[in-house]
Each structure stands twice: as C-alpha cells, then as structure tokens.
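Sample A.
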Amino acid sequence: MPVWRIEDDCIAKAAKLTLNYSGPNPFSIYHKMRDIIMSVVLVKKEHIWERDFRWDDLGEPKGFYIRLYINKAMDAKTKILFELIFQGKQPSDKSKPGSLVMTISARIFTDYTLDTAFQQSLMYRGFLKIYHKIFYNDVRRRFLSDCGNFIDKIFTRVRTEFNLETK
C-alpha cells in the first residue's frame, strides 16, 4: 500500500533528551515508567511495548538494556512514536549503587494512503498537497507542539520523581 508520509522529530534542538542516575536500584525507574507514561501521554498499556530487553547475568553489577516504544494516535492520519532507552548496571544487592542512562526521543508521522490508481495520480496528489498546506498543516503543527509538551512532561516528572541529572 503506497503512502505519502510526512515525518518530523518532536524535539527541535536535538533528536533526544538524556537523563543520568546513580544510586540504589536503578532498574526500579524502568518499572515505574509505564505508569508515568500512561498518565502523561494518556495511552493504554497495549500502546506500550518493549522492542529490546537484554539482561547481562554474567557480571556484577548486572548490565541491562531496554528499548521501550509508545504509540500515541493523535487522529486518523497522525501518530507519535516515542522511544525510551534504558541502559545501566544493577547490583544484585539493590541497596548498593548502580547506574542508569535513559534517553527519550519521539517522531511524529502523518500518513496519507494512496491505495487506488486515482489516489496515485498526479491530480489527486496535487489536491492532497493543497489540502495539507491549507487545512491540515496547522493541525499537524499543534500535534507537533503537543508531542514536545509530552516529552517535557515526561522529562520533568522523571527528573523530579527520581532526582535525575540532565545531560
């Protein structure tokens, strides 16, 4: 199915924000993130999934790497895909200090499907570009602003709740 896709990073200055934590039980931050995300981004559990979950059981402290995705549909055409990466070291004794580096990034996607031969014609694509420019671009810009606000809220809530440093 052909698609005309418009895609942007939600964070203007950099593609991601980074948080650092050193202290006891860094893995607990990951466990609490689903609740934080669901309350800030207003998504259900089925819109959050892990793409990677790696746990290094050989050494001490134990290393971990987790890639978490959140899919937020804004309307029928536009969605936001958040990516959170957790990388750190968790000691077996949770009271001993460990470390965590967490990165947050997001991209906004607007898709126009081009299923039929008419939709793939130059005339239809021209009308689609005019529609997007005149009517939908302002809506999409508001969604882009919402995306940045979601990231700021997640960033601020995690930073204050867990006393993390920014990088």
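Sample B, a different protein:
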Amino acid sequence: MKKCLGRLTNWDKTSFRIDSCFTVSQAYQCGNKTDEELCKRCLERPREGKYQTRILHGLITEPIPHVSNIYGSFTYWQKLKKFEESGKTLSMDALKWIEVAETAQKQMEENGGWKVQRPSTREIEKEMRKTEQKKKVAPTKTMKEIFKAVEVKYREIDKVPVVLETDSVDLCKKVLGGITVWIADEFVFDTDSKGGVGDHIGYFRNGEFEEC
C-alpha cells in the first residue's frame, strides 16, 4: 500500500491572515494508506465548497485548483500581486508563515508532487480576464426571479408595542490565522487599537473562518 495523494488543508490550524481579505492556508498530503491514488475518505470529499478543510484540493501531483485558498494556488498569487501593487510589505510573521508553507510544499514535491511556481503578471491577468468573461456570460435573473412575492402575515396596528428583555450576546476572544479576533455567535470582528471589538471581518462557521 502507498500514501494517499490527496492534497488537504486544515483551515483552523494552519491559516494565516496576511491582509484584509487575504487569508491563506497551508497544504499537506493525506496520510492514509491506499492501493489507489486516493483513499476512500478523500474520494468522498467534494472538490468545491465554502469550507477549505472539507474539500479535496486535487492530487498533490496536479496543479492546485482555482477554488483553493492555499499557499501556491492561483488565488494566493493573485492576492499577493494586489497586495504588492498597493505598496504594502509583508510583516515578519507573514514571512515566517510563508517560509513554513514553502517547506511543507517542498516536502510534497519531493514525494512527486506538482511544483509550485509563481505565475507571471501576464498569466495572472489572463486568468483574471477569463474569470470576468465567465461572470459576463452567466445567465441573469429577472427582478421577479430574485425577489419572490412575500406572503403578508402581519399588519401594522395602532397598539403600543410590548418591549421585552432579550439575552445578551456572548463575546469570545480567539486567535485565527495568527491574529486575535472577537467572535459573537458566528460573527467575527477584528481587535481595535485598545484591544476591544473592531470591524466586522467575516464569519466563523463549522470551525472555519470565512472572510466577508
């Protein structure tokens, strides 16, 4: 039996927030043994979806899919290009994280994995144009299809509304992707300069952070 060739990630444990709307995770090879290319568990994983931990990011011998938010993916290089063009520089923590992600990737490459290479600016722009074209040819819905008729169940009356007490919202402090955040229910807020609750930056669902 040989090692499964599935490319996976654990968003909660290995993701890192480089910048606003720029969070990436580290890839690793599935450790299960199998007689085929993929183990039974990886075969059952979806290839697309919101939650990066759940999906299969292709085989380590294949290019990283565009839906992947992991180091070395097209999404990673595209966001890094925008980050650099904005005049920003990578923090020391970001550089350390990238170094760890590069090491993990090289280990997969030594096992016959696909080699990560940064695409040229021209290649990135070409792929971005393809994505824009797909959006333009996508079928558009009419207003009636988007906004369905709402059944009227309640009507306004002249009576004074009754005011009732509600439960307070519990805030939880947590470290996600190397930064300290506040979580209320599934809403994630960053930390302001005084250590308090800052701006709403995303959602924490099923153990994974989703940027808004």
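Observation for Sample B: The chain has a mean pLDDT of 85.
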